[in-house]
Amino acid sequence: MSPDTMVNTSGNMNLLHLVEIMNPSFPDIVDIAAYILVPVLCCLFGAKGILHYFQLESYQFPGYFRTLGRNKKHALLPGIVAVVFVVIIRLGGYFANQLLYGAGLYHGVTRIIVDVLMMVLAALAGVFISKLFTEKKAKKPFVITGRVKRLYVVLFIVMTLVSVAEYFLVRMTILAGFRLSLWPLLLPLVVALAGLLAWPIEKLISECYFRDARRKLLASKDLIRIGITGSYGKTSVKHVLGTILSEKFTTLITPASFNTPMGVSRTIREKLTPSYQVFVGEMGARHVGDIKEMCRLVKPVIGVITSVGPQHLETFKTIQRVAKTKYELIQALPEDGRSYFYDDGSFCKEMYENTTIDKTLCGTDETTSDVWYSDVSVSQSGCSFILHIRDKGSIPCQTRLLGQHNISNIMLAAAVANDLGLSLRQIARGIEKLQPVKNRLELMTNPGGFTIINDAFNSNPVGAKAALDVLSQFPQRRIIITPGMVELGNDEEKYNREFGKQIAGAADIAIIIGKNRATPILEGLREGGFAEENMYRVDSLDDSTRLLHTIVKPTDTVLYENDLPDHYQEA
């Protein structure tokens, strides 16, 4: 008996049909399975783009739903299109069975063939949907990790249960024969439900990895464990510190921007060996308590706070909460631990003053700082300065890193290195070896002859201003390409408008990417007296590249400031 024949003329199921459901034949089972699995397979494969958003937000539900709100088309259309495909496939199966019945070929084998074809078509439809609504040139592609595989299993189970419930709801009502599945319209919520149900499993697995990494890290009794956090500059300080310390110690730093518990755990488990003498862990945070969790893993004896500023305000809401979270690193240090701060005249200075354990302040004022710099010379090829360490002396230093702000990062690393026993000469030698961090004021030469300053990584108000200061050191013409800044909460528009004013004082041509976010930047440019004919607004990075090639000259300098993640692109 086919699901398409399980209704009488009134549209209600009779007693005979109910008995047949309770005692189905094998073809009946396959019929029912096909009916249930067609929407499941279509949505399971079609949900790839939505799962990608979930992955980009580190499987955090608040960020996931904010991303869906910014990308309504890619969030809602996969489910809508899936509904259409389910109707087409189910109707196709129904008419195929009718043709087979009319030709006298309607029996168990042919029914099963039709059912299998329906399920195959549903899977193919899902693949088509995923290609249609997944970013074609994702900057951070969807990765099938172990967690994603487990999430797919849970998602399949959830979808199947929902589809089974829908099947019996339809079959037991006057809707019998109704071939429309409406639950795919709630596909983003179904994915969220699967993520919620999978969370305890992931928490258990991550805790196992976490504990194994911590055990391995603490097994080396002589290993010096350093934690670095800050609103910005932490990745740069990490690389600077790793390079300088390598003059004396075998040093392991977390790669790239690995700054989450799982990223740091992975580094420890895969790369830490007994030969290492120093471990430097970058600690990122988007919520209060995140740094405390990182310290539970690393157990740092040295803590470095690079900065406190308007970063991730979308989740933190206020800078005060940012500062509180960063200070969790200092609170986690042992009584004989050491802490390092840069004198920003604000939050970091206040943290320094409130800290009771061994502490070091870095800055530019020799009367208040323990480590400071003077006689700065900034050029297109890097910076030179004199490094001063109280009670130790001074030494001239040269670095290829661009921008005076990088000297601030170097001060923090030099202070730590000094306390770990490096000589001034070793510190200066390490500073000279520093290489620009990828996508952070990285100086490049385009084959067309013009100069590129690549500062595309995760821009913030302070970093953007520093990048513009670097751009202003180059001769005209100076061109900036930017989509503005994100994750600045309710103040995002204000910061982007101020960014526009700053651009007006540093660039000659501005190419602004985006729609809504571009508006305050353009307003700021106008307020700064920027020439209207030198302002351009384009929809995408690709569009900006095409425009650039029509106006750029071999002697120009082009600053790429920020490159938004896929889930922040404006549709």
Written overview of the protein:
The chain has 571 residues and is of the alpha/beta class. Helix content is 50%, strand content 14%. The chain contains 21 helices and 15 strands. It has helices spanning 15-22, 26-46, 48-56, 61-70, 72-102, 108-132, 146-171, 187-219, 234-245, 261-271, 290-298, 313-316, 319-326, 328-331, 347-354, 405-419, 424-432, 461-471, 492-504, 518-527, 541-551; strands spanning 224-229, 251-253, 278-282, 302-305, 338-342, 358-363, 371-379, 382-389, 393-399, 442-445, 451-455, 478-482, 509-513, 535-538, 557-561. Strands 2-3-1-4-5-6-7-8-9 form a nine-stranded mixed beta sheet, with helices on both faces. It has a six-stranded mixed beta sheet with strand order 10-11-15-12-13-14. A hairpin with a 2-residue loop joins strand 7 and strand 8. Helix 2 packs antiparallel against helix 5 (72-102), helix 3 crosses helix 4 and helix 5 (72-102) packs antiparallel against helix 6. The longest helix is centred in the middle third of the chain and has 33 residues, at 187-219. It is globular, with a radius of gyration of 30 Å.
